[in-house]
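User: Teach me something about this protein's shape.
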Amino acid sequence: MSDPDKQRSNAQKSATALKYDGKSAPTIVAKGHGELADDIIALAREHGVLVHQDDELNRLLSQLQLGDNIPKELYIVIAELIAFSYVLQGKFPEQWHNIHQRIDLKT
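Assistant: First, the predicted structure itself:
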């Protein structure tokens, strides 16, 4: 890829990072475009943070400022992503019961 092509592709890339403490709404803790977006994603992966790629969700989140809580309109989608990330990591709430036997707990 030539330098102009790389710059064009980096200019279009963006990333927004959320922090969730389990008590209050998730908060925007980092956001950026181009090489900064690449750095945010690389740092997240380096620290074992799962990365979800969704251009439309990122477009909405990127409109927020650092330190902002996500708006109530995004609670459900963000909650589903957080819950799914917990399942991928093998984490389940203490009260959770696998009543439908759809998740293999032996892994």
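Now, about its shape. DSSP finds four helices and two strands in the chain. Residues 41 and 47 are 10 Å apart (CA to CA). If you'd like, I can walk through any region in more detail.
User: That's plenty for now, thanks!
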